[in-house]
Amino acid sequence: VRLNATNVAASFTAxxxxxxxxxxxxxxxxxxTKFICPNHGSEFSTTGAVLKGPATTNLKKYTIELSGDTLxxxx
Length: 75
Description:
Radius of gyration: 13 Å
Number of strands: 6
Order of helices and strands: EEEEEE
Helix content: under 10%
Distance between the termini: 15 Å
Largest sheet: 4 strands, antiparallel
Number of helices: 0
Strand order of the largest sheet: 1-2-3-4
Shape: elongated
């Protein structure tokens, strides 16, 4: 997701899509700046750290590289 409007790698974050609790696809809440699982309410920071359970394992965070207009995610 894009965290702010600047055009540097730190303006983006990439984490695994599946909640570590039961594998449901998570959503990003820009207003709250966190990822939220719609299934059981687990919450994760923009670095993938668990903020609120029932999930107990962090999301995998991927590496972001930005070169001109090209955004590359590796992991």
